[in-house]
Amino acid sequence: MIPNQWYPICLSHELRRRPLGLARMGRRLVAWRDGDGRAVVMDERCPHRGAARSDGRVRDGQLECPWHGFRFDAEGACRRIPCEGPDAKISAGLSTPAYPTREANGLLWLFWCAEVSEAVPAGSLPEIPWFEEFREPSRSEASAAIDWPMNYVRSIESNFDVHHFPFVHGSVLPGMGERIDPLEVEVEGTSIRTRGQLRRQGRERGLAFEIDFEAPSLTRLAFQGFSFIVADCPVDEHNTRRHAIYRQSWLDVPLLGRFLTWSFMMLDWKWLQNRQDLKIALGQRPAAPDLAVEHLVHADAGTAAYRKLRHDLLRKAGVEVQKPQ
Ligand code: FES
Ligand SMILES: [Fe+2]
User: Fold this and answer.
1) Which one of 124, 155, 188 terminates a domain?
2) Which of 66, 96, 124 is the C-terminal boundary of a domain?
3) Is this prediction's pTM over 0.85?
4) pLDDT tens-place string over residues 176-227
């Protein structure tokens, strides 16, 4: 995990009135909404006796622990200890700072730093990564989330992989070519831009694709009128939460347009990715990529660019990592 970056921890609509327990970033977190509906994210563990605060409830805009009813405000400060009465002296150790959190583009984002401290000034945080095409609201958008039992770097790498289509998805999408040509990959700052075509040998035209990436974990894929964002979030070393937001530009009619997007999403997300891709991905060794001894080819140029960008960002953040090939 690259520190000091925004990560999408859940779809906005998954967080309702009740506190939500989330396994993300190798930790157990609780997300909840304060009296103004603002999302708050803190460590799930209660600093009193360690109960899971996600089993608690929100009362008067504060999170109440289910065990002894201690209450915590949106900054993470403990505000009430019922067993000690209204004049209780509340020790600083009962406060656990809230993570810098924002809601944008249908997702709840958490700014991940190595140690949470109150020293992170909200004004100094970088922009949340997003793609221009998806900034304007769309009438034909559909979103979904799945949990993959797979390392999150491997999950992100899989977003750049198009040359598996005829082999893994040929039963559902027959007639695709095997050749990736042309393929252009450009890296600028923390962005990767990929343009290419999957075609049959001897034919000039095939399936045109665009794959764009914004660090640390946001990918946009586009195939002839359909486009979608995959917002990956690490759960731990072996699991990934994947959020997807789909759009299409074929049919801009309120209900029908959304239905078409939803149908494409069900085919791609639930069938192609969650069954066919995941089956292959789970057999991949090593399961975590940093020790990978792989022989990338030209068609893997997007994956190679991602590995290098990730490596550079980790080093910049002071994390020791193995150099990518
Ligand atoms: S464990 Fe949370 S209030 Fe006691
Ligand atoms: Fe696939």
Assistant:
1) 124
2) 124
3) yes
4) 999 999 999 999 999 999 999 999 999 989 999 999 999 999 999 999 889 9
